[in-house]
């Protein structure tokens, strides 16, 4: 395992309170030396710039391997999510309690379908 991969040990989370809480209860919570958490709870009052800033911050952190983002939150910053093209951290869109997963919106799935010539 390369040094770059070994250092990436965290999962960052952007989503509604229930989704983030569930993932944090699984033991993924972390606050770094600069007091920056690896999660953001998004609700109706969360300003769009704060969501965008958290996504960009998580995507630049060298200790984050995966960013889990509920599809509802991903839809709010769809342009950022769709334009992200790095291997690490990997972006995974997940369903939330109130919003089921829609594969037609998932940017990673779209890329895979394009790769295999299955996009409609």
From TrEMBL:
A molecular function GO annotation: proton-transporting ATPase activity, rotational mechanism
A Pfam cross-reference name: ATP-synt_F
Keyword Membrane: yes
GO cellular component entries: fungal-type vacuole membrane; proton-transporting V-type ATPase, V1 domain
Source superkingdom: Eukaryota
Subcellular location, record wording: Vacuole membrane
Topology with respect to the bilayer: Peripheral membrane protein
Functional summary from the UniProt entry: Subunit of the V1 complex of vacuolar(H+)-ATPase (V-ATPase), a multisubunit enzyme composed of a peripheral complex (V1) that hydrolyzes ATP and a membrane integral complex (V0) that translocates protons. V-ATPase is responsible for acidifying and maintaining the pH of intracellular compartments.
Quaternary assembly: V-ATPase is a heteromultimeric enzyme composed of a peripheral catalytic V1 complex (components A to H) attached to an integral membrane V0 proton pore complex (components: a, c, c', c'', d, e, f and VOA1). V-ATPase is a heteromultimeric enzyme made up of two complexes: the ATP-hydrolytic V1 complex and the proton translocation V0 complex.
Protein name: V-type proton ATPase subunit F
Protein's organism: Rhizophlyctis rosea
Lineage: Eukaryota, Fungi, Fungi incertae sedis, Chytridiomycota, Chytridiomycota incertae sedis
Gene: VMA7
């Amino acid at each position: 395992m390369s040094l770059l991969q070994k250092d990436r040990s965290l999962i960052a989370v952007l989503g509604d309170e229930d989704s983030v809480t569930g993932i944090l209860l699984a033991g993924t919570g972390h606050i770094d030396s600069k007091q920056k958490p690896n999660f953001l709870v998004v609700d109706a009052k969360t300003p769009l710039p704060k969501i965008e800033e958290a996504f960009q911050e998580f995507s630049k952190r060298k200790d984050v391997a995966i960013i889990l983002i509920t599809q509802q939150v991903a839809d709010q910053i769809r342009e950022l999510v769709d334009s992200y093209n790095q291997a690490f951290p990997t972006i995974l869109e997940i369903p939330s309690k109130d919003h089921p997963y829609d594969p037609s919106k998932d940017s990673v799935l779209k890329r895979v379908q394009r790769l295999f010539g299955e996009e409609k």
